[in-house]
Amino acid sequence: MARTWGNIFFSLLDYKTEKFVIAKNKKVGVLFRLFQLGVIGYLIGWVFLWKKGYQETEEAIQSSVITKLKGVDLTNSSQFGLQLWGAEDYVIPPQGERIFFVVTNYIVTPNQRLGYCPEVRDRGCWTMHFIVVYSGVKTGRCINDTGTCEIHAWCPVEHGQAPSEPLLSKAENFTIFVKNFIKFPKFSFSKSNVLPTANKTYLKTCRYDKDHHPYCPIFLVRDVINWTGYSFQDLAKKGGSVGVGIEWNCDLDKDESQCNPEYSFTRLDSSINSQNSVTSGYNFRFARYYNDAAGQTYRNLFKVYGIWFDILVNGKAGRFSIIPTVINIGSGLALMGAGVFVCDMILLYMMSKSSFYRETKFETQIKPTASALKTHSPERKPQGTVSFRTQHATEKQKNISPVSTLKTQRKQ
């Protein structure tokens, strides 16, 4: 037992070195070359050309977006008559932020003042039982004349439904000017989507078009919605949410003029199969307050429907660096080694002559003895002497008997 453990221990001290064997096997040879070509093609085509594996990249883009809308529309309602809507009226907030709302439809409840008024039917109108409802607070008093509960709220309460047609129907012709400033801090690279041009009237007349004006930063509301797969009428009545994507993919090994944005458009609040869902659409309420001559505070309550725009900026920049280049080349060489391993397994264990290849490849050598070293070392001979074997071979080639040759040498 001790001897067995000793053998195991001493076997750990054995050193293994590679032995190269040239196997004249065309099947394995073709397979190995195909594997090498595949690795080289992957490394050059996919890693370096397509994925630009020789570049150091950065995706932590710093971005600032400023928006400006232009356009007017005229509405005619029973409460207010003719009313002109400018950008200061239909854009919320008006500061020109990355996220903004454009009013397309609305319900207005004019001349509300704080007081007591009827709300809902008298079911649940308990005396002195205050219950908060969306319009105000129930007082607990029943109003028999109207069959409703009394509430403390801004009166009269909101009523009515959104018009079947959007009141701001000309909103589809409004323009959106998007200014986007980006920076990749790792490379100290900055740029804007407003390209420099010597034509001073270009930005006043151009409209974004993917084919003819791909770098114009001015968009028509109608076009933006159409590019999402919907129409203006689909969103204008009950509202919706639209995302405008700005994608920066910059190869900084090329000229700066080659780094330009690409735009994309999508509807965020609904899919095509659920456009009538309760999750689609967008609206909210706001009020405008004023005082009459007697100092009484009134307000006009607006429930507005419209389109919520969200400008989404993403980007990636890359520049040549020796570190990722060396790492990717090393990965390719490692894959080459995997090919050697696979072909070895096939040759040594899966071929019909695998046992022959194994015997040829794997060989165990013990520590050589002194006699073995002497046998394998060349004999040192004095200068000017020739061994009998060498001379015998030479004379034999000349058809001369070695005995006669020796006799001749003795006579001399």
UniProtKB/TrEMBL annotation:
Source taxon at top rank: Eukaryota
Pfam families: P2X_receptor (PF00864)
Chief localization: membrane
Spans traversing the lipid bilayer: 30-50, 329-351
InterPro entries: P2X_extracellular_dom_sf, P2X_purnocptor, P2X_receptor, P2X_RECEPTOR_CS
This protein's UniProt keywords: ATP-binding, Cell membrane, Disulfide bond, Glycoprotein, Ion channel, Ion transport, Ligand-gated ion channel, Membrane, Nucleotide-binding, Receptor, Transmembrane, Transmembrane helix, Transport
Topological relation to the membrane, as annotated: Multi-pass membrane protein
A GO term from the CC aspect: postsynapse
Intrachain S-S bonds: 117-155, 125-149, 206-216, 250-259
Biological-process GO terms, alphabetical: calcium ion transmembrane transport; response to ATP
Localization per record: Cell membrane; Membrane
Chain spans, region Disordered: 370-412
Family per record: Belongs to the P2X receptor family.
NCBIfam families listed in its UniProt record: P2X (TIGR00863)
Protein name according to UniProt: P2X purinoceptor
Organism: Cyprinus carpio
Upper classification of the organism: Eukaryota, Metazoa, Chordata, Craniata, Vertebrata
